[in-house]
Amino acid sequence: MSASNIDLAEIKDFLVEIAQTAGKLIREKSGKVNFDDKKNGVDLVTEVDKAVEVLVNKALSEKYPHFKFIGEESYVAGETKITDDPTFIVDPIDGTTNFIHFYPSSCISLGFALNKIPHVGVVYNPFQDLLYTGVKGQGSFLNGEQLPLRPSAALTLQSALVAIEWGSDRSGNNFKIKTDTFTSLAAETKDGGAFAHGFRSLGSAALNICGVATGSLDCYWEGGCYAWDVCAGWIVLSEAGGRIVGGNPGDWDTPLDSRVYLAVRGGEGQEQFIKDFWSHIKGNLEYEH
Ligand code: IPD
Ligand code: CA
After folding, report:
1. 219: domain CATH number?
2. Does the C-beta of 224 come closer than 6 Å to ligand 1?
3. Is 218 an annotated catalytic residue?
4. Burial 210-230 (b: 16+ CB within 10 A, else e)
5. Which one, 192, 261, 265, 287, has least CB within 10 Å?
6. Which residues surround ligand 2, an ion (CB under 5 A)?
7. Domain for residue 169, yes or no?
8. Domain assignment of residue 66, yes or no
9. Residue 140 sits in the same domain as residue 182
10. Cβ(169) – ligand 1 distance below 6 Å
11. Binding of Mg(2+) 2: at which residues (predicted)?
12. Is 276 part of the annotated catalytic residue set?
């Protein structure tokens, strides 16, 4: 199916409605719910994550019965695959740890992909009432204001504000690569480091990517997240002049489900910035699909 047969703006409007409805529930319940472990004691889920996913799936399958749905809470490892079909790719709460701790940095992330390419994205942080939207070929916006918000100055790694996340895998080679890379990005240039301006972790992949789209952050690097963490943010960022490449060196055209990403804002020197960033990555991150 081609994008010309699908009303992307209508999908965006419907996703905004769902995000605002679900956002009320997320805001009300934050800090008040029990949680369970998934893969380990820092990979968490609550009954609200599950309830929001059910609500979103129901609304979408009623309005778009022929489109597919992939959501974090119903995904089956090794079985659920993204196809070329029109597919909603959804994270009911991105930033569940923040949600549990009543730290006001989580969101609902609603993406729509076609031919495995993000076409529509809606990311809503109900705690700060921040609504990010993006539609392929139609620009991206924060609360109606076109992105990026900050004028795109030239990109350099030394002057960058870099988003990173520790993730939930805290042992083994991937963990070592991450911590060694963090050190190299932070260290002074006389010691071989990038000496970047600073580091931030918003605790939500979607909000990190949207932060890059606004221009507040220069880039975001992570391994271990999934398509539902990045799909919606991807189109918000690319419509703002930014791009997502692989989080391993040399991967200029990374697939939506590669699990390893580097998101970079628009601006002069973007390609050189990506190469410079890659030169500080201390190995090859590898995750199961
Ligand atoms: C997580 C967040 C976090 C990122 C992890 C994700 P969740 O999603 O986006 O920032 O570091 O890779 O899994 O568990 O809060 O939906
Ligand atoms: Ca989630």
Report:
1. 3.40.190.80
2. yes
3. no
4. bbbbbbebbbbbbbbbbbbbb
5. 192
6. 72, 91, 93
7. yes
8. yes
9. no
10. no
11. 93
12. no
Does the beta carbon of 260 sit less than 6 angstroms from any atom of ligand 1?
no
Give the number of whichever ligand sits closest to the CA of residue 95. 1
Run of H or E including 84: none
Q: State how far the Cα of 200 lies from the Cα of 161, in Å rounded to an integer.
A: 7
Residue 17 lies in a domain: yes
pLDDT at 152 (0 to 100): 84
Give the chain's end-to-end CA distance (angstroms, integer): 25
Q: Average pLDDT, stretch 45-74?
A: 97
Mean of pLDDT values over 241-255: 98
Instruction: Determine what percent of the chain is predicted with pLDDT higher than 90.
Output: 95
Verify that 81 and 14 share a domain, yes or no: yes
Burial class (CB in 10 A: 0-12, 13-18, 19+), 68: middle
The pLDDT tens digits of the residues spanning 166-211 come to 999 999 999 999 999 999 999 999 999 999 999 999 999 999 999 9
- For the CA of 208, the nearest atom of ligand 1: 10
What's the burial of 193, exposed, middle or buried (CB within 10 Å: 0-12/13-18/19+)?
middle
Last residue of a domain, one of 124, 146, 168: 146
Q: Is 174 in the pocket of ligand 1 (CB under 6 A)?
A: no
Residue finishing a domain among 115, 146, 177: 146
Q: Does residue 164 fall inside a structural domain?
A: yes
Active-site residue 229, yes or no? yes
User: pLDDT of 120-135, one tens digit each?
Assistant: 999 999 999 999 999 9
| Residue 108, Cβ density class (10 Å: 0-12 exposed, 13-18 middle, ≥19 buried) | buried
**Catalytic residue among 229, 235, 239, 281, which?**
229
Q: Is the pTM of this model over 0.85?
A: yes
